[in-house]
Specification:
Blueprint (H helix, E strand, L loop, with lengths): L2 H18 L5 H20 L3 E6 L2 E4 L2 E2 L7 H8 L4 E4 L5 H16 L10 E4 L2 E4 L14 E2 L8 H15 L6 H15 L9 E2 L7 H19 L4 H13 L9 H4 L7 H7 L2 H12 L4 H9 L20 H15 L11 H10 L7 H14 L16
Antiparallel strand pairs: 1-2, 1-4, 2-3, 4-6, 5-6, 7-8
Helix pairs in contact: 1-2, 1-4, 5-6, 5-7, 6-7, 6-8, 7-8, 7-13, 8-12, 11-12, 12-13
Length: 389
């Protein structure tokens, strides 16, 4: 059994001992001593140690712990708002004991409000909800056209945190990105009568978060619609989630400018695909598809767009799929320099430009999917279709 699994098994045993024996009892102290030994063994191999508790699955450093599938304590921890646990090499025995006391205190409450503190810290130990900053804003974004009570607040908070980590020159937190995609996959793989849950943008400051989540959802939905398997759908979802990651390198005043970009500003903006591919490749060499999509998602079928390719070639299938989803969500969202387009107008735009901007089969499949899943409204198309800048 791995050192990670040994540590978590010791956590379960120690929690039981703390429940049974009063403070200072020898059995309680022995259990804590053994647990701290297991922690030291784990941190000697992996520091920091990062766990995610996702339903029946326990994930350690992006790898599910198969020996702990359906581990009872994983569900219980998630149920009291501890979906993520991170312990670095400076953790002490007393900090570990304090964490377990907090777990037991939460378990003993009849109702736990897990929204008050999204991420808590005890010395070298951080715990809380997936991918959120410490004591973050708990406001949940509004959902567009959902027929059930989706909030997507957890996922949006995780994406905001992910972008903040990258902007601060830290490594790409792949665990959180994968957790977001897993959560969204469960949402869209449920009742087929449920409309694809997308977030409505309320102000431009949250555009990057909202757009990343929407493109992720649309990419996975389209992948499933055309018959790809669950593994491919999740890989395309990761690519959709990270496709605009390079924008963390673009000055905010350029990203939020309401007027036409100056040539120098356009050059900066057009550099974000290369930045994104570089960030992903350096942080996670295994995310080859996501890195390629980050680089190619603004390249058209006819070779136009950007970055300009010195030698024309066909883009990756995932890039062509994400490109369709990216343009759809960008056009349906109000931006500083234009209003939002109605869905019918965007679908007409995709079909109109099939074969030279968009892959024709993918654009047509996307149109069919949206028409099947999104409530239709009668809207008059008064404006001419114009190229997307």
């Amino acid at each position: 059994m791995s050192t990670a699994a040994n540590f978590l098994n010791a956590v379960g045993h120690t929690l039981s001992a703390l429940t049974l024996y009063p403070e200072g009892h020898r059995s309680r102290e022995l259990a804590l001593d053994k647990l701290f030994e297991r922690l030291e063994e784990l941190l000697a191999e992996h520091a920091p140690a990062v766990f995610l508790f996702l339903g029946d699955e326990v994930v350690f450093r992006s790898h599910p712990l198969k020996e702990l599938k359906e581990w009872e304590w994983g569900k219980r921890l998630a149920g009291i708002g501890i979906q993520r646990l991170e312990i670095d090499g400076r953790a002490t025995r007393s900090e570990l004991e304090e964490l377990l006391d907090e777990v037991l205190a939460r378990l003993n409450l009849k109702a736990v409000d897990t929204t008050e503190a999204r991420q808590m810290r005890i010395g070298a130990i951080r715990y809380g909800r997936i991918g959120t900053g410490e004591e973050g804003d708990s406001e949940e974004p509004e959902v567009l056209d959902a027929t059930i009570a989706f909030t997507l607040g957890e996922e949006a908070a995780a994406i905001r945190w992910l972008h903040e980590e990258i902007a601060s020159e830290r490594e790409l937190p792949l665990l959180e990105a994968e957790a977001v995609v897993r959560s969204l996959a469960v949402t869209i793989q449920g009742d087929r009568e449920v409309v694809i849950p997308l977030l409505r943008l309320r102000n431009y400051d949250e555009y990057t978060t909202t757009h990343a989540l929407n493109v992720c959802v649309l990419a996975m939905a389209l992948a499933e619609w055309i018959g790809l398997g669950a593994q491919d759908a999740r890989a395309f979802g990761i690519a959709g989630l990270l496709h605009d990651l390079g924008k963390v390198k673009i000055p905010r005043e350029v990203l939020t400018k309401s007027g036409k970009l100056a040539p120098s500003e356009r050059k900066l903006m057009n550099s974000h695909p290369a930045h994104g591919a570089r960030i992903i490749s350096r942080s996670e060499p295994d995310l080859e598809v996501a890195a390629v999509v980050a680089y190619e998602h603004h390249i058209m079928i006819n070779g136009g767009g950007y970055p300009v390719m010195q030698f024309p070639r066909d883009c990756h299938y995932a890039s062509k799929l994400v490109h369709v989803c990216d343009v759809y969500d960008a056009l349906r969202t109000r931006r500083p320099y234009r209003g939002a387009w109605p869905s019918d107008k965007i679908l007409a735009y995709l079909e109109e430009r099939s074969g030279y901007e968009f892959d024709g089969e993918l654009a047509h499949a996307f149109t069919q999917m949206v028409q099947a899943w999104e409530p239709r409204t009668a809207e008059v198309l008064e404006d001419e279709l114009v190229p997307l800048v």
